[in-house]
Amino acid sequence: AQTVTQSQPEMSVQEAETVTLSCTYDTSESDYYLFWYKQPPSRQMILVIRQEAYKQQNATENRFSVNFQKAAKSFSLKISDSQLGDAAMYFCAYTTSSYNNDMRFGAGTRLTVKP
Amino acid sequence: DVKVTQSSRYLVKRTGEKVFLECVQDMDHENMFWYRQDPGLGLRLIYFSYDVKMKEKGDIPEGYSVSREKKERFSLILESASTNQTSMYLCASSSEQNYSNQPQHFGDGTRLSIL
Asked: Is the model's pLDDT at A1 over the cut of 60?
């Protein structure tokens, strides 16, 4: 079975500091795409960042960056200069090119930001 | 921006009732999805559709059915609601263009309680 594992159910970070959320995945596909989604308390899931597996360069979006280790099947999210608005559930997900955008999600990490 | 609208934020129904959850997207997306979200389990795919009148089973289709009569609308049906279907339900859509690396766009979710 193809799975996504987020080993940290909860994390907390002090405002303005940096936090890293972990994600590992298991797929036999060679071509796939990885995503981090954020779900704030208002509940709408929004895309934070995405990474194509064929790209060696780690994706970056402003304060959000990933550490993609393909051989280890690891895809962690780093949030720099954490803000109160970053508090949310974060989900790691991936999809392969072998089917119609069927996306697999991890169980999520709840991030708390302390003022 | 993509808008995915779910008809209800909160819904309370009784065991045995037939329940309809509606989802509409305004971006002419080919793919639409229904997930349920439970604490500690992340998002699990119930059904998805890649075209009008087309549907595919996800990981947990038992007890559910879907309908896609128009491209913009994807309905989830609980044929005979049971208490173990109490959950948060999320609808999503995505474009088929380079389908496997297009992010999914989510609605606000429907919190369904079956009494």
From this structure: no
